[in-house]
Amino acid sequence: MRTSVASIMAIVLAVASATMLQAETIITYDFDSLTPDETIVGQDGWVAAFGNTNAAKYLMVVEGTTQDWISDQGLLVTPLDRDCMIQRADVIADASDLIEMSYTLPGLTAGFVSVAPMDTDNVVLPFRFGLNYDKWFIRQGDGTLLEAAAGLNGTDGYRLVLAIDLAANEGEGEGSLSIQNLTTSGSLTPVTGLQDVNLKIPTTSSPSDWDGLFIRLTLAGTGLDSISYTIPEPSTLLLLIAMSVLCLGGRLRR
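Now predict its structure.
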């Protein structure tokens, strides 16, 4: 049985399309280049947010020996319970194709951790996700807080992953939160009650302008590490292969 050139072309194009959908670029900020045992404020473009004065005193860069970090260093509220808020511009150039945000937490029994994108005008986006003492949460753009029990083990580290569909809900976006226990090497587990949540992103906000990050941490011992953006990356090589087959098919017909 002969296989036509058209059939081969169709197969290659299908493989190329599937691969292009699967390829991803992950942009990670891990605090490893910063000076340890110093406040985060004033390092690498990080500044206090909303006039917060606690961050410069109590939000410190610490080495991995202090906490069970995934990277060599991370952030830690120490030594007192304080509400600390910081922000930084130019973390990602363009979030138009953003499909995921994630970060890791060291072992803790309770704390408040919140992360949100920030635009080029230093406006913090109203939707965010994190830990509200003993509950995982997604905060929608209108301020509504949706929560689910966390069941924290004080010695375990966790990875929080918010899968994002920016086109859903007529541009208001959709988010689904999953958690991975890093200490037990568990799999990524969807959080019941925090799936397919309408993020209610203001339609006046353009993801192409989301270049920065906002972080809020409270309670002594609350930490954060390795914040990541994930965006899809088309495979130019496979697209060129598919185009080459098209050209070959044209020549074979002549």
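The chain has two domains: 1-23+235-254, 24-233.
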